[in-house]
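Closing statement on the zinc ion sub-project.
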Amino acid sequence: MTSGTTVAEPVAITHATLLPGDLAGSVRPRTTVLVDAHGLISAVGPTDEIDVPPGTRTIDATHRFVLPGLINAHAHLFSDGRPLPAFLVSPRVERLALAFLHSALGRRYLRGRTKSAAITQMNTGVTTIRSVGDPGYEVVEVGGAIERGQYLGPRLIASGPLLAIPGGHGAPQIALTATDAESTRTNVRRNLQHGVKAIKISATAGVTDAKEIGYAGRPEMSEANMRIICHEAHEAGVLVAAHAQSGEGIVSALRAGVDTIEHGAELSDEAIALFQHNPESLRGFSALIPTLMACLPLVKLDRSITGANPVARANAEWVLDGMLRGIRQCLDNDIPLGMGTDSALTFVTHYNTWRELDFLIRYGGLSPARALHAATQGNAHILGIEQVTGAIEEGRAADLLITDADPLDDIRALARPSAVLVRGRVIDSPVVEEFPEIDRLLDDF
Ligand SMILES: [Zn+2]
């Protein structure tokens, strides 16, 4: 993950109130951040002590706040978050849609959607996105184009299709499936050969697959096959994420060596111990990435709006309850806790990342500083990119966002950043297309 070959204009942000996104929630008033022509942070310190070199574009951030660009550790980029009309989600139409997405025209369509989704997230301050379940390799391709400097975009860590069992969560739309060890190995290798930088497993079923209450957490992939996947991915230096929505599914994924548990549930003592010290994981620990925004609408909104059947609704309540318990257990047991939005799911737009932080604070019990940490330094550490981005320190990529109000006072300050810097490139007053009908619903939660 280099900053590519593009050369940026050197930038100085002066007189800023710096929020570094550390666990302590520190605040550094009257700070200057210097960004060099390679898009890297070259100095950070008190405005009075830092000389701005001649020829540097200066942004006076008096009364403004500068923080690390947000990292979205759980995203999908294939759709924009608006609900699909009911007639489009019948099994027959799904089969046609699947055939289309794997045609040449479909792949071009997906690349276009992916690019616009990534740029929308960037324009709301998300400078790094990990995708965890894509129809094909379109996120790999778009990420490559951004790395080569073909257009400005966030850093993309793409998973490609997730790995599941036949008929399992995400199959067949966004998954490669297998049951035996050899095909499982073939699938993970296929993703790695396509250049993915993340691997995603469906360890359990999900809310939308629900056939009865509790079904969402039903274990799907065997621990032995998850172990094969972790081994292959870790050999390539790639971290593994697992969709897991029950205590049982979480323990088996952690034992297999999974590095991040997505969504989560109430944790057993064994799970807590494995998060803290996981000998099979790539770096000796595992982390939780909750995704409240994907779940809350199904619980909070009337079924006439969500279109969910009563079983899916009951499962969503069950999953949300477990997810909230899991979050509290992470806070109580010093388990790394990240932030992901599950963007592209219904009601999860690409510009609403701030809402996930808001929900983590109001529903999950995180302090605003803890939520900001999860979305910045915490996620950087969890995704293994802390040497590259996620903090405002010399040598890191200048992935930054500037807000007019203090997000530690009101997290909604993140909703419309006054500027975003991506690898040192400044985007002034970024704008995005919004869907007011969705925001009106979410504002009531
Ligand atoms: Zn997801």
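Residues 74, 76, 132-133, 342 surround zinc ion (CB under 6 Å). With this model delivered, the sub-project is considered complete and its resources will be redirected to Aim 3.
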